[in-house]
Amino acid sequence: MSLLYKHLRVHQVFGANTDVGKTILTTALVRASAFTKPGAFYLKPVSTGSMDVADDEHIKRYTAPWKDRVFTECLYRYQEPVSPHLAVKLAAEQSGHSQPIIPSDETFVASIATHIRGCAAKIKQTSDMYVETAGGIHSPTLSGTTQVEAYRPLFLPTILIGDSKLGGISTTISAYESLVLRGFIVDSVLLFRDKYYRNWEYLQEYFADRGIQVTSLDPPPELLANPSENFVSTQQYYDSLMTPTAENGILTALKHLDSCHVKRLQELDSMPRRTLDSIWWPFVQHGLFKEEKDVNVIDSAYSDFFSIRTPPTDASSPPTSLLQPQFDGSASWWTQTFGHAHSSLTLAAARAAGRYGHVMFPRATNLPALKLAETLIHEGPGKGWASRAFFSDDGSTGMEVALKMALRAYSKRHNLDRASQKTLGILGLKGSYHGDTIGAMDACEEVGVYTCEWHNAKGFWLEPPSVSIQKGKVVVTVPPSIAGDTATRHEMESLSWTYDVQKRLSSELATVYKDYLRRTLSSLQARGSPRLGALVLEPLVMGAGGMIFVDPLFQRVLIDVVRNAEATPPSSTWSGLPVIFDEVFVGLHRIGMESTPPLLGVNPDISVNAKILTGGLVPLAVTLASNSIFEVFLSENKADALLHGHSYTAHAVGCEVANETLSLIKKVIASPEYTQAQQRWETSPGEASTVWSLWDPSFIDAVSRMERVSDVMALGTVLAIKLVDDNAGYTSHSAEEVFKPLLAPEDDRILFSSPGGAPFGVHYRTLGNIAYFMCSLTTTRGNLQTLEDKLWQILIPK
């Protein structure tokens, strides 16, 4: 991901199949580079078979005239002429080892990247490098992972060697599409000019429509029995390919590859200025960011990392990559589930796009949407209470749908006239955030910064008690408005105890909460304004409001009080006020649990899921509703229906990706890594904790004791660090300034590294004096440990 150099053009060579002339054509490229430039590098990561037929030996043999500037290397070599995954096993068996030592994909990729970086460091003049794979693009690597997957972290520009034989048109196009589906940049297609099958004629036209140059070259001569004669014949063949007058020859291909490299560099260099001149960023004050250095240019992304452009270095500095890895420390606005560019999700999207594209949804159905609705209702967050799923575009629109459902239900039950309906408000918590569309904004307190001229806050918002870890202690902080004459600071037995809502329902604090809520709601009812039509909560964690970890006991008592505000109807219908859970942020294991109702001990009437739902690939939201809410809209009068929709409602692509995401999540939460993370939070051996985090508990404890830290909290993938700041608030820049060193990748304390083995910087987001960090469900313990170490070093007293 971080292997782009100004002075070293690197291309990876993939073959559409085995025996397509990959090494012959790569040799021609190496010779052309050696002939026209100061140096040429060739790397064969894996070679199988005897040395006399090894590809790197072939390169050496036929680039002898330039041996002082052609550098070849093979990293893993095995004697048996079979697929690499089998060759490594056979080598172990032959040496008497029952368990072969097989390099992991991470080790394999890191060794390639390290070699490339070493080559780049050796030279200062413009040179070329070719990394030749083995077999076809889906041939297995040493670990058994197919090459197109294993090499993806390197993200090297690609040369595809097409198949000139019978059936070669199909294999070449299939190989190309497999590369494209995984994000590879295919710069050129090379193949032999077989005059009988004439595949090159068709492929030139096919790839011309896709802006890719096809170079066809004469095939090599027949292999001669006499080695000396064969060498001369082959040498003459290579020489013929380099004739400057040769139409569409290897020098033409080389020139094209050079132009692709230059174009990519120019595009990267121009993107900051072009961005500043044309883009209006969300949540950014452009008056504070006016320079090109302020633009974070993301060239690609893979796993938990961006690959970002680095500012050009001084000419006298050692040559370095123009890209560097950067850990995606906010899970790309809380959306990433398994990291970026997950091929299973990409293929799911392609599967649905190829089958459906976009199809109308009213009075229709499609299999991805139906499966997703059934899964969410019967197996997922709606299990046990929801009966219907309503699709929309994103979290904010999903909340708009939820509000319409709830307010209609309340209005109909109480026979409100039109004027009364217009003044209905919601009951919520201070600091809540439900999206940026007007209706979702109106459901939040107006004192926040998320506002606009039409924003008209409708409702009443309670200041919630919060949970945090302070100086090694789990503390519930109760606002004075709730505490009254009682304590505002309560030290808890443990984090697990704090989130054991059922046990805490009989506590004194539960009584304090209940008395306060009853008084407050009675007072509101007596005043008559605002009339409340729904309770809207972000369960457990209020994200954009400042990563506020709300005391779950308070939310449970609030729901109980609201639902007992009038004579309780049958349990199958909503009572008091319809209750909406906004689980856009916290849902689907973001905070270590699929959904919050089991922990709170109560179900909502309506809930909303988005973000993690589609693994961070495409936007989609689902609003789940109980049957009693659905029946409010049920009649033979169309005007009674929920007349709400989006052009891309139940988009088949999004639904198929969501189905794949939910399927993969099941595997992740059953994995040993996930289980080990949960075990680290056990209160005692074998006793599972109610709540846990992928972040290490000892690290959380240590950070909470630091002088600069007010408090810290972690659940699931989320870590929030609140700094001591007298000018705290959303507009404060204190956290952003303190954690700025995270942006730099140079760090001697590095423990683990990004794909490809390079140190990494960290992209992070702040909310005033609060810095939050978020990983995916599959972030490795090693990378989290590295990030924890970086955070520790920043916060430690200087």
UniProtKB/TrEMBL annotation:
<dbReference type="InterPro" id="IPR005814">
    <property type="entry name" value="Aminotrans_3"/>
</dbReference>
<dbReference type="GO" id="GO:0030170">
    <property type="term" value="F:pyridoxal phosphate binding"/>
</dbReference>
<dbReference type="InterPro" id="IPR027417">
    <property type="entry name" value="P-loop_NTPase"/>
</dbReference>
<dbReference type="GO" id="GO:0005739">
    <property type="term" value="C:mitochondrion"/>
</dbReference>
<dbReference type="Pfam" id="PF13500">
    <property type="entry name" value="AAA_26"/>
</dbReference>
<dbReference type="Pfam" id="PF00202">
    <property type="entry name" value="Aminotran_3"/>
</dbReference>
<dbReference type="GO" id="GO:0004015">
    <property type="term" value="F:adenosylmethionine-8-amino-7-oxononanoate transaminase activity"/>
</dbReference>
<dbReference type="GO" id="GO:0004141">
    <property type="term" value="F:dethiobiotin synthase activity"/>
</dbReference>
<keyword id="KW-0032">Aminotransferase</keyword>
<dbReference type="InterPro" id="IPR015421">
    <property type="entry name" value="PyrdxlP-dep_Trfase_major"/>
</dbReference>
<dbReference type="InterPro" id="IPR049704">
    <property type="entry name" value="Aminotrans_3_PPA_site"/>
</dbReference>
<dbReference type="GO" id="GO:0009102">
    <property type="term" value="P:biotin biosynthetic process"/>
</dbReference>
<keyword id="KW-0808">Transferase</keyword>
<dbReference type="InterPro" id="IPR015424">
    <property type="entry name" value="PyrdxlP-dep_Trfase"/>
</dbReference>
<protein>
    <recommendedName>
        <fullName>Onanonoxo-7-onima-8-eninoihtemlysoneda</fullName>
    </recommendedName>
</protein>
